Automatic annotation (TrEMBL):
It comes from Chloroflexus aggregans (strain MD-66 / DSM 9485). GO terms for cellular component: plasma membrane. This is Diguanylate cyclase with PAS/PAC sensor. Residues 331-383 form the PAC domain. Residues 166-212, 258-328 form the PAS domain.
Length: 728
């Protein structure tokens, strides 16, 4: 370029290029020119041989000659209007001289213009026009934001290119290399950047001088400390050399490098990564998307996403999801999408807006994960959790039921009578089966009849008594369940019963003990029913056993009267009560007259019959509050609470007469009449011990037998026997 700064630097190095032949035309590539010229703060434009515009920089509009077109288009004539003939002729002459290879300088309207002959790729010869002074050009180069330089070729004697020499650089270039400007001017390119010989940069510059084809490549520049940075180089031929602009793309290159790494990584992951523009036209489709959906990248890129993927949103709509995406920049949720083979796949999608450096949305990126397996395991886990929760509920209910059954068992264990047990059973079954109703029946010993013990619930219509034959469960010894119109009902169930029923036989040691009947809209668990029935039958059977043992302990097995053991306990109790309440208490001892002779005459079986008959007489003629006990052999003791001396005499005499008049039948034949002797003592208010009472009644009995038998003697009427002697 025939400008002062270029001339000075070129002349300084002219002795090095021995075989160099300078040409007046500057080779220009329009693309390179547009890139470089747009960085200059001066008006620059290029025309072809016909003076038509090839390219103009962006500064042209505000620094153009006033006579030139304001906004010219490529191919438009760059001459003043015909209304300015002198000005038009002057510009046409300057263009013509430059096209012929002359470097022209012309001042028009106070502004100096430089006309540089150039060779334009694809256009041929042309002219480059700029409006600068030498100092202005220096300032223009310095004003360029990117590193910029002018380089001339160094050749050997045979004309072979061996290197390039730096002719001019701006401060930006000095800054990235760490050198001062005076250190760089005249410096060889390969000395400064030796790696250009290996990475292909020098080879591209050689090709640039041969063909004039502009160079654009990625290379590195290291500062004097050796720290490399990545640059994008735009170089164009300039006489026997080139001009170059270096744009720092280190950050961008690192980002692109990471993007390439991420792209390679994305191809390895199982998730589908799908990129689209804002119109949902597919721009990216990784291998994960191919695996999930079945379409290859070649089939889908450049086509609308909706033509491939049919999406069904789970908890929202496509419009709502799009609104959230554009408002927040991200949407996440679960959808169902159709594969190429028609299969519906559950997808977890994360969709984000991609933006440029200004924050303007440029596209959409979706990361979709096939959650079929996760959904399957979630369903399995949900079912397992449901089963676990139900198991916990069942366990808690069963624990509560067991607690109630145990409480029922504990209460039944402390019951003394069946009346108490009936109340406890009704209360316990009401708590165990609040949604059902029913009753419990107990078998009468030695019969086939069962009588009602307890019932609960509002729907209960319990019979007072049933027989074993009326219940299928009792007949079979198994639980018998029925529901309306599904099975045979037992005869003891009411015809008005419209609910399900369950009969549970209560069997103890192979014998039917009772029946548990339960009815309701739904029946309880069989385990609870069985457990409850076992608890009730064992408790009631134990209660019956305890009653039997208690009777055996206090009841004489032959006569059914209380035995001597019970007498001793009861006499002490009745004596204390009489003394506490200040009422009389009479104790009488009875002996069968000539009982040994009776046994000798009729036999012991007849004697046993006589003893049993005498017990019947006692039960018939004694009050409920009176006690009759067999003292031993043929001797009996009567305890008569609240009976004074006179009343005792009357009642005992009547009893003696009844015995004497009673006709006893044994083996179908009547036995001879028998008589009894009675001795008694009435305690009015005095303090006395129980054994003293018996001793005095026994003394009176001895007196009755000694005085002829068949009589009643009061201890108080024995004049010849003092109390002390009677006690002894």
């Amino acid at each position: 370029m025939k400008i002062k700064i270029a001339e000075k630097n070129a002349m300084a190095a002219s002795h090095i290029s021995l075989d160099q032949q300078e040409t007046p035309w500057l080779d220009i590539d329009p693309l390179i020119a547009a890139t470089i010229l747009n960085c200059l703060p001066i008006a620059v434009w290029i025309v072809d041989e016909q003076y038509r515009l090839v390219v103009a920089n962006t500064t042209y509009q505000r620094a153009r000659p006033t006579c030139m077109p304001a906004t010219p288009q490529a191919g438009e004539c760059m001459l003043p209007d015909d209304s300015l003939p002198k000005c038009r002729d002057h510009w046409q002459q300057q263009y013509a001289h430059a096209v012929q290879g002359e470097h022209r300088i012309s001042t028009i309207d106070g502004i100096t213009y430089y006309f540089q002959p150039v060779t334009i790729k694809h256009f041929g010869k042309g002219v480059l026009v700029c409006t600068v002074q030498d100092t202005t050009l220096n300032l223009a180069i310095e004003a360029m934001p990117d590193p910029f330089g002018i380089y001339t070729a160094l050749r050997n004697r045979s004309g072979k290119l061996i290197d390039f020499q730096i002719v001019a650089v701006n401060s930006a270039f000095c800054q990235i290399t760490g050198y001062q400007q005076h250190e760089l001017i005249g410096q060889r390119l390969l000395d400064l950047f030796p790696h250009y010989h290996e990475d292909g940069t020098f080879a591209d510059l050689q090709q640039l001088l041969k063909t004039g084809e502009p160079v654009r490549r990625i290379t590195t520049i290291s500062d004097r400390s050796g720290t490399p940075r990545t640059f994008e180089v735009h170089a164009g031929k300039f006489n026997d050399g080139f001009v170059a602009s270096w744009r720092d793309i280190t950050a961008q290159y690192q980002i692109e490098h990471r993007i390439r790494q991420q792209a390679a990584l994305l191809d390895q992951i199982a998730d589908a990564v799908i990129a689209t523009d804002l119109n949902y036209v597919i721009t990216g489709w990784n291998r994960g998307a191919e695996r999930i959906y079945g379409w290859s990248a070649e089939e889908v890129i450049g086509k609308p996403l909706g033509s491939f993927l049919k999406t069904q949103y789970t908890n929202t709509t496509m419009e709502e999801a799009a609104l959230v995406l554009h408002q927040t920049g991200c949407w996440e949720g679960e959808v169902e999408q159709q594969r190429r083979d028609g299969q519906i796949v559950p997808i977890h999608a994360v969709v984000v807006l991609s933006r440029d450096e200004n924050g303007t949305p440029t596209g959409i990126v979706a990361v979709n994960r096939d959650i079929s397996e996760r959904r399957h395991f979630e369903q399995l886990l949900m079912k397992a959790n449901q089963r676990l929760e139900q198991a916990i509920i069942d366990a808690r209910r069963q624990a509560a039921e067991i607690l109630l059954v145990n409480e029922l068992h504990d209460l039944l264990q402390v019951c003394h009578t069946f009346a108490e047990a009936a109340e406890v059973v009704a209360f316990g079954l009401e708590r165990l089966f609040p949604r059902q109703y029913g009753y419990v029946m107990v078998r009468q010993a030695g019969t086939a009849n069962l009588t009602l013990l307890a019932q609960w619930g509002d729907g209960t219509d319990a019979p007072a008594m049933i027989t074993i034959d009326q219940c299928w469960a009792l007949r079979r010894g198994l639980i018998h369940r029925t529901c309306p119109h599904e099975s045979i009902r037992c005869a003891h169930i009411s015809p008005n019963e419209h609910h399900c029923t369950c009969c549970i036989p209560l069997v103890v040691q192979g014998d039917i003990f009772g029946l548990l009947y339960i009815a309701g809209e739904e029946l309880p668990r069989s385990e609870l029913i069985v457990m409850t029935g076992d608890t009730i039958k064992l408790a009631l059977s134990n209660l019956a056993l305890r009653a039997t043992l208690r009777e055996q302990a206090i009841i004489d097995p032959l006569t059914g009267l209380y035995n001597r053991r019970y007498l001793e306990t009861s006499l002490s109790r009745e004596l204390h009560r009489a003394q506490r309440e200040q009422i009389p208490l009479t104790v009488a001892m009875i002996d069968i007259d000539h009982f040994k002779q009776f046994n000798d005459q009729y036999g012991h079986d007849a004697g046993d019959t006589l003893l049993r008959e005498l017990a019947v007489i006692f039960r018939e003629h004694l009050r409920q509050s009176d006690l009759a006990c067999r003292f031993g052999g043929e001797e009996f003791v009567l305890i008569l609470p609240g009976v004074n001396q006179a009343t005792a005499q009357t009642r005992l005499q009547h009893l003696r007469e009844v015995v004497q008049q009673r006709q006893i039948i044994f083996a179908g034949a009547p036995l001879r009449p028998i008589t009894i002797s009675i001795g008694y003592f009435t305690c009015e208010k005095e303090e006395i011990e129980p054994h003293i009472l018996l001793q005095r009644a026994d003394a009176a009995l001895y007196a009755a037998k000694r005085s002829g038998r068949n009589r009643v003697i009061d201890f108080s009427n024995l004049p010849t026997l003092s109390s002390d002697e009677g006690d002894k």
